[in-house]
């Protein structure tokens, strides 16, 4: 049982790390003299110096991607917090329904992000 709880904690932390990295990482798309990520578009010169950076949030679909990424991080943090609260307050053999619901919400938000074209 202890191994199962440790596995669940590792899963929660891995999801949080992946969500933070995918939200914060820059340069999702790197092309000829420009780089684009979730938050800004930057044009660079041939020497690699950044000349202009503009906000990427002009597109409606990109704003929805930004919102779902932030929501999945929030739901995942809440899920981890509720897991620890329920771990110490539930009776032996109790079910982690609330934690599971928040984890499903976090995963469904991050998977909806991938369906934007």
Automatic annotation (TrEMBL):
Domain of life according to the entry: Eukaryota
Pfam families linked to this entry: PMP22_Claudin
Membrane disposition: Multi-pass membrane protein
Any one of the GO CC terms: plasma membrane
Role of this protein: Might be involved in growth regulation, and in myelinization in the peripheral nervous system.
PANTHER family referenced in this protein's UniProt entry, alphabetically: EPITHELIAL MEMBRANE PROTEIN-RELATED, PERIPHERAL MYELIN PROTEIN 22
Protein name as catalogued: Peripheral myelin protein 22
Organism lineage: Eukaryota, Metazoa, Chordata, Craniata, Vertebrata
């Amino acid at each position: 049982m202890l191994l199962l709880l440790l596995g669940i904690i590792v899963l929660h932390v891995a999801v949080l790390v992946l969500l933070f990295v995918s939200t914060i990482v820059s340069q999702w798309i790197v092309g000829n003299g420009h780089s684009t990520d979730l938050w800004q578009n930057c044009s660079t010169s041939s020497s690699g110096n950044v000349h202009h950076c503009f906000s990427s949030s002009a597109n409606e679909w990109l704003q929805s991607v930004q919102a779902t990424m932030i929501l999945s991080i929030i739901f995942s943090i809440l899920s981890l917090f509720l897991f620890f609260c329920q771990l110490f307050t539930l009776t032996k053999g109790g079910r982690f329904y609330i934690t599971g619901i928040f984890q499903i919400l976090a995963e469904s938000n991050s998977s909806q992000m991938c369906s934007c074209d």
